[in-house]
Structures are given as structure tokens and as C-alpha cells.
């Protein structure tokens, strides 16, 4: 968003870019690798990052295939300073074989949603651009980034992790598990359609998942804020049940119960018209 670029004092942020050949590249949130992966392919502190890779690749590429070759060649020379998540489905047509999993805001208490190279657009909430003039407006009503950032801020504190952080992470893990299991079937179904119908089908699925995540993040954020207010420092002390006198002993706070059902991520788009 223009606002984050302005707030961070960056001249530009090329995490998303397209050129005159309609070669489009997206590389955003950093993820975490396990020890085995990092041993085989260690990160390089001065290597490519989300602020440099897209700009360098797109300016040299006339096709998507060429862009992949350019990216890999750059990584071979300079290495990468960050980890991103992309799944390749080699048994599918090339124009729908890659799915990037994106998390706006910190992924620690956010959710990775699918962005397929077969999709024609992203969902409306995920496409909103906050202007540079509003760089200091922390708007959780309009922008996914701030919703997930707020959840991370509220859940990451060590003393509150088991009360707020863990239940939120568990819910997003369940949602991600459903999406990663169902994405191959969505693509397989789309592969049997004509080009226009396939793009519509994939777009409908990815956008639905993005919309669901945005809506859920708003509800979870509301739940966390209410629960934290209810269990604020002034409410943590025990009370005499008869006189309501505040006691010195501390009342135990149970973990937050997320009021949502991750089954909402079981979604099959309507079949598009293939006439």
C-alpha cells in the first residue's frame, strides 16, 4: 500500500509489479523454514528480498517462463535473504500450475490465502490501497494488513500467548489445512474446463478464501478485544462472591474460545458457463 511505503520512508515497494508484456510478479510476506531446508539452502543476509526481487525480475522478462529463469539465476548468484511460499503443481497446465500463499501483515497470527497464477483478480478487500496521506491511520475496518497486525500485537505477548495467541493460531492453522488440501482439487477441476471458465472458477475460489479470511480476522479481532477488556488488570483479581470486595489473589483466565468454525473454508465455487 502507498501508506506503508510512505510510513517506512521507502522510495518504492516493488513486492507487486507488472510490465508491458503483462508479466506480473508478486512476492510479499516472509515465512519460516525448518532446519533441514535452511541447511540445504541457507539464507543470505545481503541476498534478494521482497523489495528487490520483483523489480529485478520483471524488468528483464517478456514471458512468465522467462521470469522464472531470471529469478532462479539471480538466486544462484546472490542468494535469498527471505523465504516465501509457492506451490507448483507439475501435472497441471502451466498457466494454472503455481499458487503463491500470501499473508497480509505478520503471518504469526495471520493466515496464508491462495493467489493462483490462474486467477484473474484478487478479492476487493485485499486489493484496497491506502493512500500515502493516511500513512499513520491504523484502519482495521478497511485493510487486511491492519487486522492481522492488530491480532499479532495482541497475541504475541509472552504472558498472554496461551490465552489469546494460541487459540488464534490454532484457528488459522485449521483454515490453512483445509485450503491446502482442497486447492489441488480446485485446480484439477478447472483443468477440465475451457480457458475462460477455468480462470473464472479459480478466481472465484481464491477470492472467496481471501474474503473469508478478511471477515474472520475482523470477528476474531473483536473477540480478542472484548476478552482482553473483560480480563483487564482491574478484573484479574478475585472477588468475594458475597461482598464483591476485591481480593489479593489473582483469578485464572481461561483461553479465548474462537467463536468461528473453520469449516467455512470448505468451499466449492459454482460451475461457470462454458458455452
| Head-to-tail CA distance between termini | 39 Å
Oligomer designation: single chain
Rg over C-alpha atoms, rounded to the nearest angstrom: 22 Å
Number of helices: 7
Strand line-up in the sheet with most strands: 3-4-5
Silhouette: globular
Q: What is the helix fraction of residues, given as a range?
A: 40-55%
| Average pLDDT reading | 84
Low-confidence stretches: none
Number of strands: 7
**Share in β-strands:** 5-15%
Walk me through what this model shows.
The protein has 275 residues and is mainly α. The chain is 41% helix and 9% strand. It has helices at residues 2-7, 35-40, 53-58, 64-78, 144-155, 161-191, 195-230, and strands at residues 16-18, 24-26, 86-88, 98-102, 113-116, 237-239, 246-250. The protein has a 3-stranded antiparallel β-sheet with strand order 3-4-5. The protein has a two-stranded antiparallel sheet with strand order 1-2. Strand 6 (237-239) and strand 7 form a beta hairpin. Helix 5 (144-155) packs antiparallel against helix 6 and helix 6 runs antiparallel to helix 7. The longest helix is centred in the C-terminal third of the chain and has 36 residues, at 195-230.
Walk me through the topology.
Elements: H1 2-7, E1 16-18, E2 24-26, H2 35-40, H3 53-58, H4 64-78, E3 86-88, E4 98-102, E5 113-116, H5 144-155, H6 161-191, H7 195-230, E6 237-239, E7 246-250
Antiparallel strand pairs: 1-2, 3-4, 4-5, 6-7
Helix pairs in contact: 5-6, 5-7, 6-7
In short:
The protein is mainly alpha-helical.
Amino acid at each position: 500500500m502507498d501508506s506503508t511505503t510512505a510510513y517506512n520512508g521507502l522510495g518504492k515497494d516493488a513486492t507487486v509489479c507488472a510490465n508491458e508484456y503483462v508479466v506480473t510478479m508478486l512476492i510479499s510476506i516472509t515465512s519460516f523454514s525448518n532446519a533441514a531446508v535452511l541447511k540445504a539452502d541457507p539464507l543470505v543476509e545481503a541476498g534478494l528480498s521482497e523489495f528487490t526481487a520483483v523489480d529485478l525480475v520483471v524488468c528483464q522478462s517478456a514471458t512468465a517462463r522467462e521470469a522464472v529463469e531470471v529469478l532462479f539465476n539471480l538466486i544462484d548468484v546472490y542468494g535469498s535473504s527471505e523465504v516465501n511460499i509457492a506451490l507448483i503443481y507439475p501435472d497441471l497446465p502451466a498457466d494454472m500450475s503455481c499458487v503463491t500463499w500470501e499473508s497480509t501483515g505478520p503471518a504469526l497470527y495471520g493466515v496464508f490465502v491462495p493467489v493462483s497464477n490462474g486467477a484473474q483478480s484478487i478479492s476487493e478487500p485485499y486489493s484496497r490501497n491506502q493512500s500515502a496521506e493516511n500513512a499513520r491511520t491504523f484502519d482495521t475496518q478497511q485493510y487486511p494488513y491492519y487486522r492481522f497486525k492488530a491480532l499479532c500485537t495482541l497475541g504475541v505477548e509472552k504472558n498472554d500467548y496461551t490465552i489469546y495467541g494460541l487459540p488464534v493460531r490454532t484457528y488459522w492453522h485449521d483454515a490453512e489445512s483445509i485450503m491446502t488440501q482442497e486447492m489441488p482439487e480446485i485446480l484439477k477441476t478447472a483443468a477440465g474446463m475451457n480457458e475462460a471458465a477455468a480462470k473464472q472458477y479459480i478466481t472465484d475460489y481464491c477470492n472467496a478464501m481471501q474474503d473469508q479470511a478478511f471477515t474472520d480476522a475482523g470477528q476474531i479481532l473483536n473477540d480478542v478485544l472484548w476478552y482482553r477488556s473483560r480480563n483487564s488488570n482491574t478484573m484479574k483479581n478475585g472477588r468475594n462472591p458475597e461482598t464483591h470486595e476485591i481480593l489479593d489473589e489473582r483469578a485464572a483466565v481461561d483461553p479465548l474460545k474462537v467463536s468461528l468454525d473453520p469449516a467455512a473454508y470448505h468451499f466449492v465455487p459454482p460451475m461457470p458457463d462454458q458455452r
